[in-house]
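Predict the structure of Antitoxin.
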Amino acid sequence: MNTYVFRTVRKTEAFMTATVTASDARKNFDHWHDRSRTEPVRITEHGRESAYLVSAETFHALWSCYRKAIGVGALSDAEMALIMEAEVSNEHAYEMPDLDETSDASTPKHGT
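Done. Here is the predicted structure for Antitoxin.
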């Protein structure tokens, strides 16, 4: 059985996003490219979210925070000791909706 460690980041509603259709994004790319320097631009196609246009600064900030899940076996003894000693206050405890946001079909379920 494999055990995985995940890091969850809460999303914030304060993050502004402009929305544009794919057709309008193609026709007015210069405008939306400029707009993406100040806020992410959500691109929709047939009424569904299909892509985001973000500034290079935003992309690099997001990429630098990206972490893949790693198997527990890849952690050092010192890292495992830190995890075992860690305590999470009730203020930062996860809730079930948090788990639903991060799970998908490829994520191993507990106990499987």
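The two ends are 7 Å apart (CA to CA).
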